[in-house]
Specification:
Elements lengths: L1 H33 L14 H7 L5 H5 L5 E3 L12 E3 L13 H5 L10 H4 L2 E8 L5 H4 L6 H4 L6 E5 L5 E5 L10 H5 L7 E11 L19
Antiparallel strand pairs: 1-2, 3-6, 4-5
Length: about 220
Amino acid sequence: MIDSKNNRRAFFKISMAALGAGVASNSLLASNVENKTKLYPLPPGAVSLERFKSKCTACQLCVNHCPTGVLKASLFENGLTGMMQPILKFDVEQFCEYECKTCIDVCPNDALVKLSLDEKKVTQIGEVQLILEECVLITDNEDCGACAEHCPTAALKMVPWKNGLTKPKVVNPEMCIGCGGCESICPTNKRAIFIARNEVHIEADKPKVEVQEEVEIDGFGF
């Protein structure tokens, strides 16, 4: 009789814990709809959240081999059925390296499509979002430009503002691939720039190659 009561108590505790986890998950997912900063991107090659969740076994090979450490095991960010599957959480020196596709290469079960490096470089896993009022340009009246310097595709550039200062501007959003170089280097406490996840990955435009015109100079040029 005692064992039976104890078993019921244990079952009740486990059920309540599961219910609590479900409520927490639903609350987090609901808040994610309003707060895109928590909708962390999926690795390149995932194609879409639906496909990725159905194929990824959460083996952690990509997480363990990621050279910058940007890949992390998810908790509830992808829902209960996506727990422990990898997501990109950008932090200092933690971003998706432009010349790297290690996660794609080590994935053992086609959860990440075998993209070539050139294909990976034009796969948009997320879109850059700029919150100018949080930028040090506005809060401290100082130039920064770190985000633009770390953008490998020139989707983000510094443009003239006022009083000799420059401000960041997303000038080529179609070239952004969501690598997070800009977010990882932003020095503000509340990020002035972040990557919002694409539920379905799309093809980005290739970076434009700026051709410099040759200028003929008479004499020595001075």
